[in-house]
Amino acid sequence: MGLKQALKSLDAFPRAEEHLLQKTQSGALVSIIGLVIMASLFMHELRYYITTYTVHQMSVDLKRGETLPIHINMTFPALPCDVLSVDAIDMSGKHEVDLDTNIWKLRLNSYGHIIGTEYLTDLVEKEHEEHKHDHNKDHKDDIDEKLHAFGFDEAAENMIKKVKHALEGGEGCRVYGVLDVQRVAGNFHISVHGLNIYVAQMIFGGAKNVNVSHVIHDLSFGPKYPGIHNPLDGTVRMLHDTSGTFKYYIKIVPTEYRYISKDVLPTNQFSVTEYFSTINEFDRTWPAVYFLYDLSPITVTIKEERRSFLHLITRLCAVLGGTFALTGMLDRWMYRLLEALTKPSARSVLR
User: Fold this and answer.
1) Nearest Cα to 174, choosing from 74, 258, 63?
2) Which of 7, 83, 180, 209 suits a disulfide with 67, CB 3.0-4.6 Å?
3) Which H or E element spans position 42?
4) What's the burial of 19, exposed, middle or buried (CB within 10 Å: 0-12/13-18/19+)?
5) 3-state class (DSSP) for residue 148
6) Ramachandran category for residue 328: left, alpha or beta (phi over 0 → left; psi -120 to 50 → alpha)
7) pLDDT in tens, the chain (351 residues)
8) What sign for the dihedral angle of Cα 147, 100, 177, 90?
């Protein structure tokens, strides 16, 4: 019996007799408020536990011999697809002109609607030719005489006529696809550099008439991961009554994204600065859009992590216990306040 009494003396939660407990309306109101608060805090803590957070780590980039994927999706509203070329060059000396392996070009009309691809079938080409107006016939004959005077072959003559017709119709071009380049510093550019200079001169009448207005829908250097921000996405650069060369200087940061499931996604982030130079009639260069990139020697590892279950239990005990204690104090204060307000009135009635 002595041991039982000793254990009872250690009880930190003594029970009062049932007939000594008094239930009040104020106590019920405080209890309901307390339960609502505790339920809200419980759901918040549970959501906080379920959601993952990311940890960033940096280390030296040790990758070798891999390729760098460049995802392009751009629109040139003032240049037809036939004159646009995608060229790439890197520090290793590799130079590729008019890449078309994984690059697609979509012809756009003046309203931005797709009217065909770069490689037209005879049917599509015939349908397009049927929309010529009669008043262009004299202009066409004029062009024929000039082309023969310059000694162009038939293919060049047909291409020049076709591009001039497209320019008059307000055709544009959407360029999209993936470039796989060496993992070294370099650049790629979209321009009319794939044309013979004399052909380009015949088409545009000079570099200052080449309008390289463009919209960058998407430009990335690898697959996207949660939370990534590509600074050039949605960029719009429109030129009016002028022309020039756009240069985007890009610093690529190799990145690894490690999911909570242990899957690893290798990709790249980048930062960018922009420069534009106008073209005058004495310049020998032709307008273009350049993307000059360099790679950082540091790689960033982003890891998804989840908080431990003990962390959840600790926070639940803190917030639920604190709310319970606070509502208990509030209940006692309200009871004493109501008691103090009702006692004087009760005394006056007795008198």
Assistant:
1) 74
2) 180
3) helix 25-50
4) exposed
5) helix
6) alpha
7) 577 777 767 666 666 656 556 667 777 787 888 888 888 989 998 888 888 888 999 999 888 778 899 999 999 999 998 888 888 888 877 766 555 568 888 999 888 888 876 533 332 333 334 444 444 444 444 544 544 544 556 777 788 888 888 888 889 999 999 988 888 899 999 988 878 788 888 888 888 889 999 999 999 999 999 989 999 999 999 998 889 999 999 999 999 999 988 899 999 999 999 999 998 777 778 899 999 999 999 999 999 998 888 988 988 888 888 888 888 888 778 777 877 777 765 555 444
8) negative
Return the residue matching tokens 């590799």: 94
List of E strands, the chain: 53-60, 67-76, 85-90, 95-96, 103-108, 114-117, 172-182, 186-191, 214-220, 235-237, 244-258, 264-278, 288-295, 298-305
* pTM, full prediction: 0.71
Beta bridge partners of 95: 89
* Strand-pair partners of 180: 69
Enter the tokens of residue 189: 């550019």
Ramachandran angles phi, psi of 244, nearest 5°: 175, -170
How many distinct helices (H) and strands (E) make up the chain?
7, 14
Short-list 163, 193, 2, 149, CA closest to 79: 163
Distance from the Cα of residue 343 to its chain's centroid: 68
Tokens of 146: 């000039």
Q: Which of 176, 173, 181 is nearest to 250 (CA)?
A: 181
- 84 burial level (CB within 10 Å; 0-12, 13-18, 19+): buried
Contact 235, 195 (CB under 8 A): no
Parallel/antiparallel/unpaired status of strands 288-295 and 244-258: parallel
DSSP H or E stretch at residue 128: helix 122-129
Enumerate the β-bridge partners of residue 237: 214
187 vs 192: CA distance, rounded Å: 16
